[in-house]
Protein backbone atom coordinates (compact mmCIF):
# COMPACT_ATOMS: atom_id res chain seq x y z
CA UNK A 1 0.00 0.00 0.00
CA UNK A 2 1.28 3.38 -0.90
CA UNK A 3 1.16 6.15 1.78
CA UNK A 4 0.05 9.63 0.73
CA UNK A 5 2.49 11.65 2.73
CA UNK A 6 0.81 14.86 1.93
CA UNK A 7 -2.49 13.71 3.25
CA UNK A 8 -0.82 12.12 6.25
CA UNK A 9 1.07 15.33 7.01
CA UNK A 10 -2.09 17.40 6.57
CA UNK A 11 -3.99 15.16 9.04
CA UNK A 12 -1.19 15.47 11.60
CA UNK A 13 -1.18 19.21 11.19
CA UNK A 14 -4.97 19.28 11.53
CA UNK A 15 -4.73 17.13 14.68
CA UNK A 16 -2.12 19.42 16.20
CA UNK A 17 -4.25 22.44 15.31
CA UNK A 18 -7.22 20.70 16.94
CA UNK A 19 -5.16 20.01 20.10
CA UNK A 20 -4.05 23.64 20.21
CA UNK A 21 -7.60 24.86 19.70
CA UNK A 22 -8.88 22.49 22.41
CA UNK A 23 -6.15 23.61 24.79
CA UNK A 24 -6.70 27.23 23.91
CA UNK A 25 -10.49 27.44 24.06
CA UNK A 26 -11.62 24.37 26.09
CA UNK A 27 -9.04 22.73 28.36
CA UNK A 28 -7.29 25.97 29.35
CA UNK A 29 -10.45 27.79 30.57
CA UNK A 30 -11.74 24.56 32.07
CA UNK A 31 -8.50 24.02 33.99
CA UNK A 32 -8.52 27.65 35.09
CA UNK A 33 -12.11 27.27 36.31
CA UNK A 34 -11.24 24.02 38.09
CA UNK A 35 -8.16 25.60 39.66
CA UNK A 36 -10.13 28.63 40.76
CA UNK A 37 -12.84 26.35 42.12
CA UNK A 38 -10.26 24.28 43.95
CA UNK A 39 -8.69 27.41 45.46
CA UNK A 40 -12.11 28.63 46.61
CA UNK A 41 -12.92 25.24 48.10
CA UNK A 42 -9.51 25.14 49.82
CA UNK A 43 -10.04 28.65 51.15
CA UNK A 44 -13.51 27.78 52.42
CA UNK A 45 -12.16 24.62 54.01
CA UNK A 46 -9.46 26.65 55.80
CA UNK A 47 -12.07 29.21 56.86
CA UNK A 48 -14.37 26.41 58.01
CA UNK A 49 -11.50 24.78 59.89
CA UNK A 50 -10.67 28.09 61.59
CA UNK A 51 -14.30 28.69 62.50
CA UNK A 52 -14.57 25.11 63.74
CA UNK A 53 -11.56 25.63 66.01
CA UNK A 54 -13.03 28.92 67.25
CA UNK A 55 -16.36 27.16 67.81
CA UNK A 56 -14.61 24.40 69.76
CA UNK A 57 -12.81 27.00 71.88
CA UNK A 58 -16.07 28.82 72.49
CA UNK A 59 -17.78 25.51 73.25
CA UNK A 60 -15.10 24.65 75.82
CA UNK A 61 -15.38 28.14 77.26
CA UNK A 62 -19.16 27.81 77.51
CA UNK A 63 -18.85 24.37 79.09
CA UNK A 64 -16.52 25.82 81.73
CA UNK A 65 -18.99 28.61 82.35
CA UNK A 66 -21.85 26.10 82.58
CA UNK A 67 -19.85 24.04 85.10
CA UNK A 68 -19.04 27.18 87.09
CA UNK A 69 -22.71 28.22 86.97
CA UNK A 70 -23.77 24.75 88.14
CA UNK A 71 -21.31 24.98 91.02
CA UNK A 72 -22.50 28.51 91.80
CA UNK A 73 -26.08 27.32 91.53
CA UNK A 74 -25.43 24.51 94.04
CA UNK A 75 -23.71 26.98 96.37
CA UNK A 76 -26.58 29.44 96.10
CA UNK A 77 -29.13 26.68 96.70
CA UNK A 78 -27.23 25.49 99.76
CA UNK A 79 -26.96 29.04 101.11
CA UNK A 80 -30.65 29.63 100.39
CA UNK A 81 -31.55 26.41 102.26
CA UNK A 82 -29.41 27.46 105.23
CA UNK A 83 -30.92 30.95 105.27
CA UNK A 84 -34.43 29.50 104.99
CA UNK A 85 -33.72 27.06 107.84
CA UNK A 86 -32.23 29.84 109.96
CA UNK A 87 -35.19 32.11 109.23
CA UNK A 88 -37.55 29.25 110.08
CA UNK A 89 -35.80 28.68 113.42
CA UNK A 90 -35.90 32.42 114.15
CA UNK A 91 -39.64 32.50 113.44
CA UNK A 92 -40.20 29.46 115.66
CA UNK A 93 -38.12 31.02 118.45
CA UNK A 94 -39.97 34.34 118.10
CA UNK A 95 -43.29 32.47 118.24
CA UNK A 96 -42.13 30.62 121.36
CA UNK A 97 -40.98 33.87 122.95
CA UNK A 98 -44.34 35.47 122.18
CA UNK A 99 -46.14 32.46 123.68
CA UNK A 100 -43.91 32.67 126.78
CA UNK A 101 -44.60 36.39 127.10
CA UNK A 102 -48.35 35.86 126.79
CA UNK A 103 -48.15 32.96 129.26
CA UNK A 104 -46.07 35.01 131.75
CA UNK A 105 -48.45 37.94 131.37
CA UNK A 106 -51.41 35.66 131.91
CA UNK A 107 -49.76 34.01 134.92
CA UNK A 108 -48.96 37.43 136.43
CA UNK A 109 -52.55 38.52 135.87
CA UNK A 110 -53.79 35.32 137.52
CA UNK A 111 -51.37 35.80 140.43
CA UNK A 112 -52.46 39.43 140.81
CA UNK A 113 -56.14 38.48 140.75
CA UNK A 114 -55.49 35.64 143.21
CA UNK A 115 -53.57 37.96 145.53
CA UNK A 116 -56.33 40.58 145.36
CA UNK A 117 -58.92 37.88 145.97
CA UNK A 118 -56.99 36.55 148.99
CA UNK A 119 -56.47 40.04 150.38
CA UNK A 120 -60.14 40.84 149.96
CA UNK A 121 -61.08 37.45 151.40
CA UNK A 122 -58.69 38.00 154.29
CA UNK A 123 -60.14 41.42 155.00
CA UNK A 124 -63.70 40.19 154.79
CA UNK A 125 -62.87 37.05 156.79
CA UNK A 126 -61.08 39.10 159.42
CA UNK A 127 -64.02 41.44 159.84
CA UNK A 128 -66.50 38.54 159.80
CA UNK A 129 -64.50 36.52 162.31
CA UNK A 130 -64.09 39.57 164.51
CA UNK A 131 -67.83 40.21 164.48
CA UNK A 132 -68.60 36.57 165.27
CA UNK A 133 -65.98 36.27 168.00
CA UNK A 134 -67.01 39.57 169.55
CA UNK A 135 -70.64 38.49 169.62
CA UNK A 136 -69.71 35.13 171.15
CA UNK A 137 -67.42 36.68 173.76
CA UNK A 138 -70.00 39.35 174.63
CA UNK A 139 -72.80 36.81 174.89
CA UNK A 140 -70.82 34.31 176.96
CA UNK A 141 -68.63 36.53 179.15
CA UNK A 142 -70.50 39.82 179.02
CA UNK A 143 -67.25 41.66 178.09
CA UNK A 144 -65.91 43.23 174.92
CA UNK A 145 -63.53 41.42 172.60
CA UNK A 146 -60.82 44.00 173.30
CA UNK A 147 -61.15 43.32 177.01
CA UNK A 148 -60.90 39.58 176.41
CA UNK A 149 -57.77 40.14 174.29
CA UNK A 150 -56.16 42.09 177.13
CA UNK A 151 -57.06 39.34 179.61
CA UNK A 152 -55.60 36.70 177.29
CA UNK A 153 -52.41 38.75 176.89
CA UNK A 154 -52.05 39.14 180.67
CA UNK A 155 -52.63 35.40 181.16
CA UNK A 156 -49.96 34.68 178.56
CA UNK A 157 -47.47 36.88 180.42
CA UNK A 158 -48.28 35.20 183.74
CA UNK A 159 -47.95 31.73 182.23
CA UNK A 160 -44.52 32.52 180.76
CA UNK A 161 -41.87 29.94 181.61
CA UNK A 162 -38.95 30.90 183.81
CA UNK A 163 -36.35 30.62 181.07
CA UNK A 164 -38.48 32.84 178.82
CA UNK A 165 -38.86 35.35 181.64
CA UNK A 166 -35.09 35.50 182.15
CA UNK A 167 -34.59 35.93 178.44
CA UNK A 168 -37.17 38.72 178.43
CA UNK A 169 -35.54 40.41 181.42
CA UNK A 170 -32.15 40.30 179.73
CA UNK A 171 -33.43 41.61 176.41
CA UNK A 172 -35.74 44.36 177.65
CA UNK A 173 -34.51 47.93 177.83
CA UNK A 174 -36.35 49.68 180.64
CA UNK A 175 -36.46 53.00 178.79
CA UNK A 176 -37.86 51.49 175.59
CA UNK A 177 -40.45 49.00 176.86
CA UNK A 178 -43.48 49.52 174.72
CA UNK A 179 -46.95 47.95 174.58
CA UNK A 180 -48.61 48.08 171.17
CA UNK A 181 -52.28 47.39 170.63
CA UNK A 182 -54.40 47.19 167.49
CA UNK A 183 -57.28 48.90 169.30
CA UNK A 184 -57.62 51.80 171.74
CA UNK A 185 -56.93 50.51 175.22
CA UNK A 186 -58.65 51.73 178.36
CA UNK A 187 -56.82 53.09 181.41
CA UNK A 188 -57.97 50.19 183.57
CA UNK A 189 -56.41 47.71 181.16
CA UNK A 190 -53.16 49.69 181.01
CA UNK A 191 -52.89 49.54 184.79
CA UNK A 192 -53.39 45.76 184.78
CA UNK A 193 -50.76 45.30 182.09
CA UNK A 194 -48.27 47.60 183.89
CA UNK A 195 -48.82 45.74 187.16
CA UNK A 196 -48.24 42.38 185.51
CA UNK A 197 -45.04 43.52 183.77
CA UNK A 198 -43.71 45.20 186.95
CA UNK A 199 -44.17 41.95 188.82
CA UNK A 200 -42.76 39.89 186.00
CA UNK A 201 -39.65 42.00 185.38
CA UNK A 202 -39.28 43.47 188.84
CA UNK A 203 -39.43 47.07 187.64
CA UNK A 204 -41.13 50.21 188.90
CA UNK A 205 -41.92 52.21 185.78
CA UNK A 206 -44.89 51.61 183.52
CA UNK A 207 -44.81 50.97 179.79
CA UNK A 208 -45.29 53.30 176.84
CA UNK A 209 -48.48 52.51 174.90
CA UNK A 210 -48.90 52.76 171.16
CA UNK A 211 -51.94 52.27 168.94
CA UNK A 212 -50.71 50.16 165.99
CA UNK A 213 -53.47 49.06 163.50
CA UNK A 214 -50.86 47.07 161.56
CA UNK A 215 -51.03 44.38 164.27
CA UNK A 216 -54.38 43.22 162.90
CA UNK A 217 -56.20 42.40 166.15
CA UNK A 218 -53.67 41.83 168.88
CA UNK A 219 -51.49 43.18 171.62
CA UNK A 220 -47.77 42.80 172.29
CA UNK A 221 -44.94 44.14 174.43
CA UNK A 222 -41.61 44.81 172.72
CA UNK A 223 -38.15 46.30 173.25
CA UNK A 224 -34.86 46.20 171.28
CA UNK A 225 -36.29 43.91 168.64
CA UNK A 226 -37.63 41.44 171.21
CA UNK A 227 -41.40 41.01 171.61
CA UNK A 228 -44.11 38.78 172.99
CA UNK A 229 -47.85 39.03 172.53
CA UNK A 230 -51.11 37.60 171.35
CA UNK A 231 -52.59 38.23 167.91
CA UNK A 232 -55.57 36.93 165.99
CA UNK A 233 -53.54 37.48 162.84
CA UNK A 234 -51.98 34.06 163.32
CA UNK A 235 -55.38 32.42 163.03
CA UNK A 236 -56.13 34.47 159.92
CA UNK A 237 -52.78 33.52 158.40
CA UNK A 238 -53.68 29.89 159.00
CA UNK A 239 -57.06 30.48 157.31
CA UNK A 240 -55.31 32.20 154.39
CA UNK A 241 -52.89 29.29 154.04
CA UNK A 242 -55.82 26.85 153.93
CA UNK A 243 -57.55 28.98 151.25
CA UNK A 244 -54.33 29.06 149.18
CA UNK A 245 -54.08 25.29 149.42
CA UNK A 246 -57.66 24.89 148.21
CA UNK A 247 -57.08 27.33 145.32
CA UNK A 248 -53.89 25.49 144.38
CA UNK A 249 -55.78 22.19 144.27
CA UNK A 250 -58.46 23.80 142.08
CA UNK A 251 -55.76 25.07 139.68
CA UNK A 252 -54.22 21.58 139.49
CA UNK A 253 -57.63 20.07 138.73
CA UNK A 254 -58.21 22.58 135.90
UniProtKB/TrEMBL annotation:
<feature type="coiled-coil region">
    <location>
        <begin position="38"/>
        <end position="97"/>
    </location>
</feature>
<feature type="transmembrane region" description="Helical">
    <location>
        <begin position="6"/>
        <end position="27"/>
    </location>
</feature>
<keyword id="KW-1133">Transmembrane helix</keyword>
<dbReference type="InterPro" id="IPR005864">
    <property type="entry name" value="ATP_synth_F0_bsu_bac"/>
</dbReference>
<dbReference type="InterPro" id="IPR050059">
    <property type="entry name" value="ATP_synthase_B_chain"/>
</dbReference>
<keyword id="KW-0406">Ion transport</keyword>
<keyword id="KW-0812">Transmembrane</keyword>
<comment type="function">
    <text>Component of the F(0) channel, it forms part of the peripheral stalk, linking F(1) to F(0). The b'-subunit is a diverged and duplicated form of b found in plants and photosynthetic bacteria.</text>
</comment>
<comment type="subunit">
    <text>F-type ATPases have 2 components, F(1) - the catalytic core - and F(0) - the membrane proton channel. F(1) has five subunits: alpha(3), beta(3), gamma(1), delta(1), epsilon(1). F(0) has three main subunits: a(1), b(2) and c(10-14). The alpha and beta chains form an alternating ring which encloses part of the gamma chain. F(1) is attached to F(0) by a central stalk formed by the gamma and epsilon chains, while a peripheral stalk is formed by the delta and b chains.</text>
</comment>
<comment type="similarity">
    <text>Belongs to the ATPase B chain family.</text>
</comment>
<keyword id="KW-1003">Cell membrane</keyword>
<keyword id="KW-0175">Coiled coil</keyword>
<dbReference type="Pfam" id="PF00430">
    <property type="entry name" value="ATP-synt_B"/>
</dbReference>
<comment type="function">
    <text>F(1)F(0) ATP synthase produces ATP from ADP in the presence of a proton or sodium gradient. F-type ATPases consist of two structural domains, F(1) containing the extramembraneous catalytic core and F(0) containing the membrane proton channel, linked together by a central stalk and a peripheral stalk. During catalysis, ATP synthesis in the catalytic domain of F(1) is coupled via a rotary mechanism of the central stalk subunits to proton translocation.</text>
</comment>
<keyword id="KW-0472">Membrane</keyword>
<comment type="subunit">
    <text>F-type ATPases have 2 components, F(1) - the catalytic core - and F(0) - the membrane proton channel. F(1) has five subunits: alpha(3), beta(3), gamma(1), delta(1), epsilon(1). F(0) has four main subunits: a(1), b(2) and c(10-14). The alpha and beta chains form an alternating ring which encloses part of the gamma chain. F(1) is attached to F(0) by a central stalk formed by the gamma and epsilon chains, while a peripheral stalk is formed by the delta and b chains.</text>
</comment>
<keyword id="KW-0375">Hydrogen ion transport</keyword>
<keyword id="KW-0066">ATP synthesis</keyword>
<keyword id="KW-0813">Transport</keyword>
<protein>
    <recommendedName>
        <fullName>ATP synthase subunit b</fullName>
    </recommendedName>
</protein>
<dbReference type="InterPro" id="IPR017707">
    <property type="entry name" value="Alt_ATP_synth_F0_bsu"/>
</dbReference>
<dbReference type="InterPro" id="IPR002146">
    <property type="entry name" value="ATP_synth_b/b'su_bac/chlpt"/>
</dbReference>
<keyword id="KW-0138">CF(0)</keyword>
Amino acid sequence: MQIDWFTFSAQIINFLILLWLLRKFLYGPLLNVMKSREEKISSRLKEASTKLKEAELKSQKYEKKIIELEKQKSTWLEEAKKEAESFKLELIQEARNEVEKVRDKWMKAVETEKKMFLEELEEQSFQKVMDIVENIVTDLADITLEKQAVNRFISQLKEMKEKDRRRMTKAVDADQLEVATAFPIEEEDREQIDATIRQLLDRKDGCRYKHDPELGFGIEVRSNGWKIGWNMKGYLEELRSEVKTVLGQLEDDT
